[in-house]
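Folding follows sequence. Below is one example:
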Amino acid sequence: MTYVSSFWVRSSVILAGAASFLLIGTGAASAHVKWFCAFDVAGQPRGLEQVLCTDFELLTGLALVCLMFGCLAEGTHLGTAILNALDRVTAAARLNSALIVRAVVGFFLVSLWNLGGIILTPELKTDVAWIPWLQLAMAAGLLWKRTLPFTAAGIVFLFGFAVWNYGIFHLADYPVFLGVAAFLALTAFDRTLFGQRPIDVVRIAAAITLMWASVEKWAYPHWTDPLIAAKPAMTMGASPELFMQAAGVIEFTLAFALIWTPLVRRASAIILTAVFISAIFEFGKIDAIGHSGIIAVLIAIAADDARVPATRRDVVLAPVYYASALMLFLGVYYFGHSALYGDGYGIGAAMGGIPVI
């Protein structure tokens, strides 16, 4: 029994190391492509029969193996020791997690005011002169706990304003902003949302954001072609096609892990934080500003010490929930695109002309 347990633990460590190595190569893909390259949200996405190819199936299979091994490790003495070590290392961040989020969101909003002409995220441009000043006032609202609801309301308003100007499908990239708004409001009132703590609400919003973004990597891999042409080393010798498939699978898996068991989600948050920070060195100031909010959220998630005892059920259900999430996001993305942008870019076209009954 001891031998079997140690085998699973050693294997999980090896797989985690392999995944971390792969992430080094995909760090550059974490830069939001819409901030640096031309894109067309209404354009025809790649057909599902091209997305759901053999390489994609192999990559998702490997991702599932890593996820299940992570769940297995969680229930061992090693998993408990890792959680205890994380609790000690992240104690300061945990005690100040709300302050960290407020400070970083304040930096983000002041940066937007300084840049001007931006609604919440770099590619959402505007000529409305009062928006930068609203963002500066929202940053000031973060200084006091009682004014946090003002900043939260401002984020929701700007999100709605961006939806009005750019469409709901475009803003589906950014539900994390609504999560941050909820985090600030719930923190101000010391409340939960249907039993979910503020950190849980923003964690779920971050997971949804990143899972949706990963589908976009599969649907529009050509958007990243200029980045790959400028930085060919980022593919580590793989073809651009395989690289984007792998980058999307890794991002989706880590995003899904954010809503799974404590050790898995904290490890995922740490890896994602490292990836986003590494992308800043590649892409500079815009990437630092654009990703600052989600980095702060990920740090808070990594520091969260809430625990639920891991069970074999978590291991068994991991592939079921993962596959369900994958089908859900692919389905919503393609059907949503078809509904909003018409038959020319609809499901029939997305599936390569296969008729849908």
